[in-house]
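User: I'm preparing a small set of examples for a lab meeting where we compare how different chains pack in three dimensions. I only have the primary sequence for this one, and I'd like the structure in token form so I can line it up with the others. Please keep the answer compact; I'll paste it straight into my notes.
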Amino acid sequence: MSSTCPPQRHVMFLKTHKCGSSTVQNVLFRYGLTQNLSFALPLVGSSLKSNEKFMTSMIPESLLPPDGKVDIFAVHSRLNAEEHRRVLAEDAKWVTIVREPASLFESLYTYYGIGRWYKLDLTELTNFPMEKLRALPRFGKTLGNNQMLFDLGFDADLSEEQLRQAIEELDSLFDLVMVAERMDESLVLLRHLLCWSLHDVVVFTKNARGEGARTALDAHTRQRLREMNDADVRLYEHFLAKHRRAVLAFGARRMAREVAALRKLRDRSFEDCGVFRVEGHNPFPKFREYSGLVGAYATASEDEQCQRLVFSEEALLDEAKQRQLSLFEDVGRARQRSGPDV
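Assistant: Understood. Below is the structure token output for the 342-residue chain.
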């Protein structure tokens, strides 16, 4: 932990679909639970209507702190910066994550079973004319082409000038845009942005498919997917270049040392916590991920921190949800006993 700045307790993380965001979410929720921080949470499920732009009314009153401000926002929601700010502290650090668009789209298509809806595999899909590909309806009104731009609150069919302005707005809004393909470097940058320790950002990859559940993309299919997601390609390349500049400013050798230390800590946590991978059917409810396509971790350890490292997203959110419901209910009862404010 840096000795020159206090640990940051307020974080806005815009969770983008299939960009490694569940891995980052695990880091933020573990830290928040350890520090008794509050979270933006839905009453049911794990997202705040990510097919619509976020509104503060999407968070149930029973899960909001008395002042209406949460410490950490790290569940799926569609960006609406003005509304997000209404439930966040003024000093919140804004973070999101991007991923190479062809790989992202393949992941969306396979993980959510979109091919069954379209009745086409990816190769068949990408043989359609580009005009038709760009006009495909969004699966569940949420998932489709230029997914990152959609999650970040913009239409998928922006003009050249609108796209340029959108990228500039996002660049100004976010303090850090992580890169999925550079996850460990991104975690190091995150920990310095937040003034957290290296231990705080130790994490196992969450909600990632095994090799057998991935569709290999040939060069032609990958290129067609990049054309189909051309706005996301512009967005990704902008923030990948910015990430590279940030690593250079940080210091390449210094970054290499911190990444090596992070990986060593991760390996040690894996061993100390007795973590093991679970493929296919998972008999452990708290460690069971949403889809059987993804690998999961489990542990027999009763240590709280070890368990949270391998908890599924659902289990981690449930812990936070039950704690907040109980805490804010107690606060409400205390206020009733003390009478109205004067």
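A couple of notes for your slides: The CA atoms of residues 63 and 326 lie 9 Å apart. The first strand starts at residue 11 and ends at 14.

User: Perfect, thanks.
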